[in-house]
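Can anyone check this?
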Amino acid sequence: MVPGSNPGGPTNKAPLEAQNGDSLQAGKPGKWSQENEARSPNSILSRETSSASAGSFTDPLLQAASALLGLLLAALGNHRTGMLSLKELAEVAKRLHETLFGEKPSSEPAIVWNEEVRRDYIKWMRANGRSEKYISTCLYYLDKYMSGREVREPDDIVDIFSKCKRGVNNLVKALRTLFNYYLEVKGYPEEFINSLRRPLPRETEGVDLQVPTEEEIIKTLRELNNGLLKYRALYWFVLATGIRKEHAISILNQFDLSRVTKVGSFNKYAIGMRGRTKAALIALFPDFVRDLIEEFVRSGAKITPNGVTMYAKKHGLVHVKYIRKFAYNAMIKAGIPESVADFLHGRAPRTVGSRHYLALADQAESHYPKYLRYLERLWRDVNS
């Protein structure tokens, strides 16, 4: 006899009424109801695992094996005599799994975040043109809120956001990209992914309308005359070109002076940086900005985003992103068409074709002297 089993016990005897197809008389909960309860999956599991635990086995693995064999023998015996349906037998197996392993088996898909997923997710994000800064932000929030947990249902999403007090928008973006990864790479059902997307909080959108005055710009640029060369070069480069801070830093740190071409009274630097939503196509700038860049390149210094932010805060400077906003307005006031200003600021559509690109580049070169005159006057005011 297998320890923990009870093949000759009452669980192998089906009630006569059940075998004959008869039913109990109403109001008489007799022997059938008691035996019906005795043969339920929960009762079988409790009885068989209890007998295994009380047996002579002390090794937990042997106790588990004993419980497993005893339960299956009892369940199969009951199934043969008609006491357990296939559905009830499946429930016995499910309950056994919960008891032995302390977890509920599930055939439902789950979103998990582990080292393997993290590694493949990074590759997928890079292949889709995401910037390293964006990837880093997503990784921070996924590491913080997804490590060690499984997401199987909308309630799991609600629980995650109940613990997020700051950076809700960033967490939403991180989870959206993770869901897209599981949909596109892992092949998870779209219906399941959509069920997890629905409870995501709506991202709060705010438009930063702050644009510094010319007086504030002049004050900042004069302060930079007495500061570090690398930041002076960065500020004037962004002001002259309208390029985003992160792109400008990358361009200056890798600047190739041999790629600068002279176009009339100003300089042109082809870039061609394209992301999913942002771009930096060409840079146009005056000679005095080229001189600053050459001096910066010869110095061998490097610029970091955090370094720029901390330096601006320490010295009370206008932040670089507002320098770019000022440059856009100044271009429009100087007479540059909005479409050309958008092109110079990298707001042109990502799908712009080569023919359209050349047309916009020609227009930019044609209109830039209008803004160049303003920059030359500003340079004189700052250095007077």
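Reply from J.R.: I decoded it. The radius of gyration is 35 Å.
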